[in-house]
Fold:
Amino acid sequence: MSNEWIRSEIESNLKAKVASDPQLHNVYLLIHSEKLDIHWPIAAGNTDGGTANPNQPSRLVWARLLRLSSYRS
Structure:
């Protein structure tokens, strides 16, 4: 399996999860490995009416993750 195939599968699964869960509006995921030489910022869904941007600054991503965790509590 190539790295691009794996990344494509992850993106596809994230998009499917966002589309299937009405309470989930967007997902941000950063996969990083120095050993494997990968740095994959991935996003799915919509943010404020626009497509989620995988290169969004991390401080905003953490704020959204914290907000998501508060919904699940």
